[in-house]
Amino acid sequence: MVKAGVLYLRDESRRNKKELMNTPTIYTAKVIDVNFGKRVKIVEPVNLYGCIIGNDCFIGPFTEIQKSVTIGDRVKVQSHSFICELVTIGNDCFIGHGVMFVNDLFSNGGPAGGDQTQWKKTTIGNHVSIGSNATILPVGICDNVVIGAGSVVTKDISKPGIYAGNPARFLKDIPS
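Request: output the structure for the sequence above.
Response:
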């Protein structure tokens, strides 16, 4: 019988075998120390820890929301999104599938290595929709903004409207 984690050499009799690897440490997705509002819906698996999630929110599967994140009321966070520390999201927002927030700009040529003094914050206003697979660097985004799918937001957005591209740029006003 063939065993997982065992490499069998060319000898078809399988008498000569060599162990491939050690047993890994396996972590389970969890929800730890989260301050939830009312009527929050979560689809597991998720990693949520040390964050605040407002009323009537939805958190999709395979999402990670780290400590010191605040999410307002009526926010929908779709699957496979990553919201890192130092992010604040306003009310009535939509975060599409696979959206990535970044707090480390590698300002010293590489990762900060846990040096939080090098991390930067991100603030998202109210009524902001961020399309799937967008990347949000440490910025401020005002109220009433739409970010197109796949966009990379590298600078503050202070005018309501529709933005897209890499880097994201203003395209047009939101129709009334």
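The mean pLDDT is 91.
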